[in-house]
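Weekly sync, protein design subgroup
Attendees: M.S., D.O., the rotation student, P.L. (late)

Item 1: inverse folding check
M.S. brought a backbone from last month's batch and wanted to see whether the design step gives back something sensible before we order anything. D.O. pointed out we never logged the input encoding, so this time it goes straight into the notes. Structure tokens as presented (407 positions):
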């Protein structure tokens, strides 16, 4: 049981003035948080220390020590314990899982001696005292959660699958290389979104994507009717080979590619021609608009006109699905918020010490996003999903899994 000596404000000041070697900021902070904890405990139990009160819910029961690293230095807190229930200081709110992962990555990089100036600044700003044993302990606990999430069985059908990749810098063999964080996000038959897969690869090759998709199938992924992604040839080929479903080229990426072949002053005209295509009421109307756009562009931007004509089937695949789903199927935008959040955390690190650290941080962010999706509003209503499921009801899940695994 940890005990602590209580001092008044006058006693704290007197002690500070009498000791020429004291740390004024640290001691002031220690006294302030001690008073804050006492006030919070008094409010929690309904009585001050030593006070007799009928409203008291329990009694104090000593203290427990806890180290607190701050910018002012390390403090040894004495946190009050209660006979019934528990108390945790409000200023020591437990970090979210992703913040723990971020701290672990920074610490790991620092201990490994591969930190950049940015990482050094983060270590200093967080007030971290880095030790190998602490890094190992934090990483071990997080890795168990990460692997449980990444390897969990997938139950039910996922009619829609969104795939995207994000480039990050990782140290590998003494060099800094660019690697891909690939993310699979599915819409379950219940209408809820779910992050169903995440991995890190050397490059966006067909072999890597094929292995990634087969890993999803091995965990139980079935019922995919439409996969949405950018036009990476390796990914497109892997989708056709492993899943054998329809493929929708992301219209946002596609429009960006078209604009990249036009001059700046031509961009507004090109966007005005192409954007309405994806909001057409049906496939026939969209095809007509593509024909008109190609006729308009063939003289001014022949390369763009050829690209638009060649991509017609790929960018209009979403029209084969329910009208109230189409707006959410024509691009990988549903993954953008998750990608931005991962980027916000990875930007802090800059260069990851190894693949494992990148997987850990990215997955922890994905777990938090997944939790929000599971308790929030459905992405698509249950009723609107029923037409997609009726045609597959006669096939058992085992038969579909075996067929996909044989691909």
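Designed sequence read out in the meeting:
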């Amino acid at each position: 049981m940890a005990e602590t000596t209580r001092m008044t404000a006058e006693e704290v000041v007197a002690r500070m003035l009498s000791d020429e070697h004291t740390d004024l900021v640290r001691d002031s902070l220690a006294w302030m948080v001690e008073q804050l904890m006492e006030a919070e405990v008094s409010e929690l139990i309904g009585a001050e220390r030593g006070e007799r009160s009928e409203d008291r819910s329990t009694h104090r029961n000593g203290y427990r020590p806890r180290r607190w690293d701050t910018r002012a230095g390390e403090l040894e807190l004495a946190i009050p314990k209660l006979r019934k229930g528990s108390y945790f200081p409000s200023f020591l709110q437990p970090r979210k899982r992703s913040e723990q992962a971020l701290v672990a990555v920074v610490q790991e990089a620092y201990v490994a001696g591969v930190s950049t100036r940015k990482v050094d600044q983060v270590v200093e700003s967080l007030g971290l005292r880095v030790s190998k044993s602490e890094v190992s302990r934090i990483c071990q606990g997080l890795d168990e959660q990460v692997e449980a999430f990444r390897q969990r069985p997938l139950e039910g059908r996922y009619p829609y699958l969104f795939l995207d990749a994000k480039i990050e810098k990782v140290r590998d063999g003494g060099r800094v290389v660019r690697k891909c964080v690939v993310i699979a996000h599915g819409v379950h038959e219940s209408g809820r979104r779910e992050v169903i897969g995440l991995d890190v690869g050397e490059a966006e090759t067909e072999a890597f994507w094929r292995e990634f998709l087969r890993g999803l199938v091995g965990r139980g992924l079935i019922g995919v009717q439409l996969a949405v992604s950018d036009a990476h040839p390796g990914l497109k080929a892997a989708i056709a080979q492993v899943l054998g479903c329809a493929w929708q080229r992301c219209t946002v990426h596609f429009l960006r590619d078209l604009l990249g072949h036009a001059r700046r002053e031509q961009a507004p005209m090109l966007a005005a021609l192409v954007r309405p295509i994806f909001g057409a009421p049906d496939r026939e109307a969209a095809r007509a608009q593509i024909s008109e756009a190609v006729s308009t562009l063939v003289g001014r931007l022949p390369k763009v006109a050829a690209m638009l004509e060649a991509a017609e089937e790929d960018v209009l695949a979403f029209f084969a699905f329910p009208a109230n789903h189409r707006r959410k199927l024509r691009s990988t935008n549903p993954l953008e918020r998750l990608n931005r959040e991962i980027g916000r955390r990875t930007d802090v690190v800059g260069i990851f010490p190894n693949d494992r650290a990148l997987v850990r941080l990215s997955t922890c962010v994905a777990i938090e996003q997944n939790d929000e999706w599971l308790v929030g509003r459905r992405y698509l209503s249950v009723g609107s999903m029923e037409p997609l499921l009726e045609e597959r009801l006669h096939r058992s899940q085992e038969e579909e899994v075996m067929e996909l695994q044989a691909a």
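Discussion: The longest helix spans residues 24-45. Strands lie at 60-70, 73-82, 160-172, 175-187, 193-201, 226-229, 246-249, 351-352.
Action: P.L. to compare against the previous round before Friday.
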